[in-house]
């Protein structure tokens, strides 16, 4: 990732981080699956081909001769677009990585950012290979902690963030796991001075969201 | 650079959305503005002459010249969303052969009445324009322009029939119509029934009459 | 650009975004066509012959079904004349007979005489099938862009190019 990112461009930051997740996980022997995006591509391209065919027969044969076919094509196109919308909203839900951990568990990662807030938010879902149970939770990290001032991505803190918070990633790359205290200090050097004032809002916030997210079952 | 473009795009997109929604609201107010038009049409003079469709044509056709008097109150049609009202009078008569249930309809007179907000668009000479603008100085809506009173008005169009014959036609009626052209929204015409706040024209149809036989043009 | 080639799915998804914008716009247009039964449900006014009602660049919405009644006198219709490319927007001023074979004569509100001169050689009247729709809705001015585009074709190329470039280079 030698690419330089404009730091105030949130979508660019998110895209770079999204790409980094795939690179990292694939490098530690995760097997990426593309089934979600494949369904999207299939739905999208088939509707595009339909529209192209419609344009072609309209151009060649004129409106009156092809009215009926055009009406049918419009109906099918509407259904396909509807399906595509439902698929991206309800099923993909911003999923940027889908794959099998070396341990055999399935991992789904969706990412999002909120306007005017430079924080990378991940929704994680892990499906246990033996029980089939899904564990879902949310984690987040400010972009400033894994992009340096000149706009270059810094892999180490990012990978530690993933390995520490996502059990299946930690299992596959244990040397990146940080001890909780070390992590806290690393993340917030200011805290050094006010260490025990801790339980720190950061931690409290993190556990809070975790609880909330845990209850919500993620459709996969 | 593409941040500037993004911003321009979203500002422009937002602007068009707002403008469009605002336009739709304005258009919707039409339905809440009462319309109660009325009119009285009387035929004052009838004539059928022979003539040619244009100077170089050798074809002879019959033309009906129908003079009429009209009193109409279309003042309700002028609202803030009215650009112009197109008023027209048609002659209507059934097909000559009995058993054929077909009608013939032709405009014999029309007039474009602009709301003052659209006066500047009218295609008239500078002097007339000055007069027109002065007639509604300071106003954007001029309902008084919807009050029409014509006496023994010459038709703008002499009408004929594809058969080239129109003399002695029976059961002809004159009818008053209007078409409201909005600044934004739906074009509307006079209705046959009341719809919501819009009433059908009260009157607006002449008594049936027959066209006379040909009078040779001198 | 290079990184896109290494990830064919991501590249395909980005191209798809652009393709879907185009095809959805096209299919919406066709959907309008199907609903209104008109090959061209929205037209831009090109001449001043209906002034002051319609100016150049105004957008007109057409309806081409006769659900309640025939196309009748007083309606503003858009019609095609054989061997002429550009459809004309004028008002029906005479109608003889009923149904498909009714003879229709049109005239521009702002023109001194009727359209007989505009019709094909030997044609005195229009019939219903010459008409591609009656005007039912109106939005001022916004069609002017298409007049600019057709009068300055290079603008079209530039716009399409810029749009395509941004859609492909930019995610989301």
UniProtKB/TrEMBL annotation, chain A:
Keyword Membrane: yes
Subcellular location(s) per record: Endoplasmic reticulum membrane
Membrane topology: Multi-pass membrane protein
Any Pfam family the entry gives: SPC25
TM region positions: 39-59, 71-89
Keywords: Endoplasmic reticulum, Membrane, Transmembrane, Transmembrane helix
Region (Disordered) location: 196-220
Acyltransferase as UniProt keyword: no
Chief localization: endoplasmic reticulum
Biased composition (Basic and acidic residues): 200-213
UniProt cross-references to InterPro entries, sorted A to Z: Spc2/SPCS2
Family the entry assigns: Belongs to the SPCS2 family.
Function: Component of the signal peptidase complex (SPC) which catalyzes the cleavage of N-terminal signal sequences from nascent proteins as they are translocated into the lumen of the endoplasmic reticulum. Enhances the enzymatic activity of SPC and facilitates the interactions between different components of the translocation site.
The protein, known as: Signal peptidase complex subunit 2
Species this protein is from: Bionectria ochroleuca (Gliocladium roseum)
TrEMBL record, chain B:
Top-rank lineage group of the source organism: Eukaryota
Transmembrane regions: 12-33
Keywords of the record: Endoplasmic reticulum, Membrane, Signal-anchor, Transmembrane, Transmembrane helix
Membrane keyword on record: yes
Membrane topology according to the record: Single-pass type II membrane protein
Keyword Ribonucleoprotein in annotation: no
Protein localization: Endoplasmic reticulum membrane
Pfam families recorded: SPC22 (PF04573)
PANTHER family hit by this protein: MICROSOMAL SIGNAL PEPTIDASE 23 KD SUBUNIT SPC22/23, SIGNAL PEPTIDASE COMPLEX SUBUNIT 3
Family membership: Belongs to the SPCS3 family.
Functional summary from the UniProt entry: Essential component of the signal peptidase complex (SPC) which catalyzes the cleavage of N-terminal signal sequences from nascent proteins as they are translocated into the lumen of the endoplasmic reticulum. Essential for the SPC catalytic activity, possibly by stabilizing and positioning the active center of the complex close to the lumenal surface. Essential for viability.
Protein name, as recorded: Signal peptidase subunit 3
Species this protein is from: Bionectria ochroleuca (Gliocladium roseum)
From TrEMBL, chain C:
Enzyme class: hydrolase
Catalytic activity annotation: Cleavage of hydrophobic, N-terminal signal or leader sequences from secreted and periplasmic proteins
Transmembrane helix in keyword set: yes
Membrane-crossing residue ranges in chain numbering: 131-147
Main location as per UniProt: endoplasmic reticulum
Membrane topology classification: Single-pass type II membrane protein
Keyword annotations: Endoplasmic reticulum, Hydrolase, Membrane, Protease, Signal-anchor, Transmembrane, Transmembrane helix
Subcellular location, record wording: Endoplasmic reticulum membrane
EC number per UniProt: 3.4.21.89
Gene3D superfamilies in alphabetical order: Umud Fragment, subunit A (2.10.109.10)
Family statement: Belongs to the peptidase S26B family.
Quaternary structure, from the entry: Component of the signal peptidase complex (SPC) composed of a catalytic subunit SEC11 and three accessory subunits SPC1, SPC2 and SPC3. The complex induces a local thinning of the ER membrane which is used to measure the length of the signal peptide (SP) h-region of protein substrates. This ensures the selectivity of the complex towards h-regions shorter than 18-20 amino acids. SPC associates with the translocon complex.
Function (record text): Catalytic component of the signal peptidase complex (SPC) which catalyzes the cleavage of N-terminal signal sequences from nascent proteins as they are translocated into the lumen of the endoplasmic reticulum. Specifically cleaves N-terminal signal peptides that contain a hydrophobic alpha-helix (h-region) shorter than 18-20 amino acids.
NCBIfam families for this protein: sigpep_I_arch (TIGR02228)
Protein name: Signal peptidase complex catalytic subunit SEC11
Organism: Bionectria ochroleuca (Gliocladium roseum)
């Amino acid at each position: 990732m030698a690419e330089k990112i404009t730091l105030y461009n949130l979508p660019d930051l998110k895209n770079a981080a999204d790409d980094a997740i795939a690179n990292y996980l694939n490098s530690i022997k995760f097997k990426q699956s593309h089934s979600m995006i494949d369904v999207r591509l299939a739905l999208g391209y088939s509707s595009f081909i339909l529209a192209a065919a419609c344009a072609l027969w309209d151009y060649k044969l004129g409106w009156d001769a092809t009215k009926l076919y055009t009406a049918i094509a419009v109906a099918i196109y509407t259904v396909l677009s509807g399906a595509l919308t439902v698929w991206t909203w309800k099923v993909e839900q911003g999923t940027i990585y889908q794959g099998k951990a070396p341990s055999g568990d399935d991992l789904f990662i969706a990412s999002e950012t909120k306007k005017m807030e430079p924080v990378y938010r991940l929704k994680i879902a892990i499906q246990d290979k033996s029980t089939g149970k899904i564990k879902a939770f949310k984690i987040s990290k400010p972009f400033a902690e894994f992009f340096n001032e000149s706009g270059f991505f810094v892999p180490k803190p990012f990978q530690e963030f993933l390995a520490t918070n996502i059990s299946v990633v930690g299992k596959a790359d244990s040397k990146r796991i940080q001890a909780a205290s070390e992590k806290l200090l690393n993340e917030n050097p200011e805290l050094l001075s006010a260490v025990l004032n801790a339980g720190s809002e950061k931690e409290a916030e993190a556990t809070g969201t975790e609880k909330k997210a845990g209850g919500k079952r993620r459709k996969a | 650079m593409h941040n500037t473009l993004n911003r321009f795009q979203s500002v422009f997109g937002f602007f068009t959305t707002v403008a469009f929604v605002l336009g739709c609201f304005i258009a919707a107010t039409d339905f809440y503005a009462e319309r109660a038009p009325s009119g009285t049409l009387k035929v004052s003079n009838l004539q059928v002459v022979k003539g040619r469709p244009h100077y170089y044509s050798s074809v002879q056709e019959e033309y009906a010249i129908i003079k009429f008097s009209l009193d109409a109150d279309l003042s309700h049609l002028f609202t803030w969303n009215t650009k112009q009202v197109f008023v027209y009078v048609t002659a209507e008569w059934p097909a000559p052969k009995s058993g054929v249930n077909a009608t013939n309809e032709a405009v014999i007179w029309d007039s474009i009445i602009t709301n003052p907000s659209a006066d500047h668009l009218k295609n008239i000479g500078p002097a007339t324009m000055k007069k027109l603008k002065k007639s509604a100085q300071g106003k954007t809506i001029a309902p008084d322009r919807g009050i029409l009173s014509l006496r023994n008005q010459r038709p703008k169009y002499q009408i004929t029939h594809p058969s080239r014959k129109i003399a002695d036609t029976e059961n002809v009626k004159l009818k008053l119509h209007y078409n409201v052209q909005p600044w934004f929204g739906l074009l509307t015409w006079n209705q046959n029934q009341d719809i919501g706040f819009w009433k059908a024209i009260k009157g607006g149809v002449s008594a049936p009459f027959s066209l006379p036989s040909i009078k040779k043009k001198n | 650009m290079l990184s896109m080639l290494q990830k064919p799915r991501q590249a395909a998804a980005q191209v798809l975004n652009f393709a879907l914008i185009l095809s959805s716009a096209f299919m919406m247009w066709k959907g309008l066509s199907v609903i209104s039964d008109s090959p061209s449900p929205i037209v831009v006014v090109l001449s001043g012959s209906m002034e002051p009602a319609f100016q150049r660049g105004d957008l007109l919405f057409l309806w081409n079904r006769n659900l309640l009644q025939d196309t009748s006198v007083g309606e503003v219709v858009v019609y095609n004349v054989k061997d002429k490319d550009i459809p004309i927007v004028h008002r029906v001023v005479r109608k003889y007979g009923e149904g498909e074979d009714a003879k229709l004569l049109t005239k521009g509100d702002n023109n001194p005489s009727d359209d007989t001169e505009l019709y094909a050689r030997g044609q005195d009247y229009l019939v219903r099938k010459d008409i591609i729709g009656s005007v039912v809705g109106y939005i001022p001015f916004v069609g002017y862009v298409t007049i600019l585009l057709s009068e300055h074709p290079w603008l079209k190329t530039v716009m399409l190019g810029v749009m395509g470039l941004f859609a492909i280079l930019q995610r989301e």
